[in-house]
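During the second half of the funding period, the structural biology subgroup turned its attention to how the target accommodates small molecules. The most pressing case was glutamine, which had performed well in the primary screen but for which no bound structure existed. We therefore specified the complex as follows and requested a full 3D prediction, including the ligand pose.
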Amino acid sequence: MKITSLRSLLELYKSSKLSFEEALSFYYSQIEKFENTYNALITIVEKEKVFQTAKKLQKKYEKLLKSGFSADQIYKKYPLLGVPVIHKDMFLTKGIRTTAASRVLDDFIPPFSATVVRRLEEAGAYVIAKANQDAWAHGSSGENSDYGPTRNPWNKEYVPGGSSSGSAVATLLLYAPIVTGTDTGGSIRQPASFCGVVGLKPTYGRVSRYGIVAMASSLDSIGHFTTTVWDNAYVLSITAGKDPYDATTSSAPTMAYHLAVEEAEKSKLQLRGFKVGILKEFYDKGVDDKIKQVTLEAIKRLEKLGATLLEVSIPEVKYGLEIYYIIQPAEVASNLARYDGIRYGNDRSYFGKEAKRRIMLGNFILSDVVVGKPESTSYTQAVKAKALLVARFKQIFKEVDVLAGPVSPVLPFKLGERTDDPLKMYMADLLTVPVNIAGLPALSVNVGWIEGFPVGLQIIGPYFGEALIYKIGALIHEFRYPLD
Ligand code: GLN
């Protein structure tokens, strides 16, 4: 028996048809079966330890049941009781090695956990492994990991996307029903698209960044992967919200996002009166024709469900990569300055090629100071362009409810195909970085197949419009398991 979603797992738990240890046996056997081939993980928590945790949580569940609480009441209080979770190796996990996939942190054991890790644990979940990724989350293919590349289960000669490469593959191969990720320029949405799973990049500030290795702080968004949209919405209901440890988190009210999904499921014509914008720039040159076709067909399906389609344009979107490759390296260079090897971790000679490239680029950008003309530095120019992009998106969301288009301009590529050409690698982020620059929420759902690879549709919402993009995504996402 395969457990293909969090929702079905919770149903099995609530009806006492499956124990926490039995569920863990399933997930652990998936890991044992596939990990040698796909390399989606960096650290696996000791088998004995995780089974002990499952047992302990099971006892807690049984005790609560015995004292008269119903399963529903218990899951209201502990919505993830007994659920195994895998975190991207950017997330600090108390007592469990956290490397960011760099040898700089090869032996780093964090003394505390990230807020997201803690919130999931307070909801009853427990950590079973840490996922592979591009080192420091720099990359779009998973090949920058100091722990070897992750392979795409749809064809193991191809990349799974990045930087949350291991997270997407662990989700697809059913290593765990919830896997976290970070998205600074597309690192959740792009691997979700390459693997055919659901990936959410929430609104900037919706989910706490506290305790997560910082890449570019003004762009970093903390999200997660699941096999279904309902599952994804359920997890966000737990992780979202104000955190006193992260001043950039918003106090905008959160909600039970999965209820919005259930509402959409009930009425298939939910989309009547809805306006879906098709961003012209997402269908320009540089985007694979077959991807254009498959995503447009998916958008047409939304029209059949009652939505009105509108073509819209934000010309400045095409400057996304230029803006991103000024702001991002500048912040990367600042953030990576803390790894001096004095207090923890190895010294700076352990940085890989890509991190060094970004440190050099970032420090060059930050040293571009024209005396007496602060407005003319490349950084200030990029920040101004960012403000313009924000204003344009805000304007567009007065005309449409959501925007839809491709996640990635290209299909998964072969391992090694782009590693010698950083500019070509950076181009993979063409359609995802504008969303990070503007700080908007966006979802990647699987809507079709080309040459045996899944194709993601990106649904972009207005600020804090997560419920909205989930509702739409739930109507068209299709999950398939790649192996048997
Ligand atoms: N691929 C992009 C980069 O290399 C985005 C990475 C990310 O979102 N963490 O910067």
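Two results from this model are relevant to the next phase. The domain at 6-474 is CATH 3.90.1300.10 (Amidase signature (AS) enzymes). The pocket of glutamine is lined by residues 137-140, 163, 182-187, 215, 328, 429 (CB under 6 Å).
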